[in-house]
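Input sequence (323 aa), recorded before submission:
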Amino acid sequence: MNPNEQLQSLIENYLAQAEFPAEPELLYAPIAYSLAGGGKRLRPMLVLLSHAVFNDDVQQALPAAAAVEVFHNFTLLHDDIMDNAAIRRGKPSVFAKWGRNVAILSGDAMLIYAYRLLSGLPAERLPQVLATFNTMALEVCEGQQYDMDFEQKQKVSVVEYMHMIELKTSALLAGSVQIGALLAGASEEDCRKLRRFAVELGLAFQLQDDLLDSYGDERLGKAIGGDILEGKKTYLMVTAMSRADEPTREELRRLLGDTGMEPDRKIAAVKAIYDRLDVPHLTEQQIELRFERALAQLDTLSADAARCAPLREFAAGLMGRKK
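Predicted structure, token format:
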């Protein structure tokens, strides 16, 4: 088992040992169900990996890693309500299984539980960790609101979209690495550099997700073209709109608004416009740029390269790379 697999196992075991009261069942059973649902454990892994760059005792960072994962899952419970989503990680969502009111209240309890986990951290580190956690949590909410605003907004610029995903996706990654580094006693400068690393990594990760939705492989477990059918303003869509002439923009709007069109035809027609405007290639360039910027931040940390290697390896694995 390599070091990253060992950290993953530590997280899984720690979360599995969480004990929730038996009653009221409809409050606590959905929490246990959500936390047992798997997922990449990306955010708690970043807490532990950033901590390990500066301190070998990763056990002391486990409560914070769990708090970040609980918070993330809390946001998913509420996201599924807002999106009317029936499936989460291949299983019925809490919203679909128990209903809206249970998902709201269990989500609220998860947020409180996350703060309970943080309250057990060393007193000398707690103010900084709480400040970082609170900023992260508010930024995630801001990003979600911008994303919902975009559903009603006719025109969304590339700059606006990048700002939204920096809040909605990158903020949680950035908060995770900062918290891990703070608990390890890292300098303010190293914490700042790790935050920049995570922001750029989060942007690359989200842009890749956007690209794979339209140009990926159904073996990834996600139907191709879902974002197009939902009319989502992804990086591909906002880039296409920014590069297209007015007749092409009108054609894109017509296609997205045509609810009677056969799904495969709609996906093919939109992708043909993307291809004509060189959107896939431009997206790949932006992914590469953001990923390289992320790795460059690791090169500037005060820790030696060997201590940064597991974090670098994890970032590469997240992006499906071998470097």
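Checked by second reader. The first strand starts at residue 87 and ends at 88.
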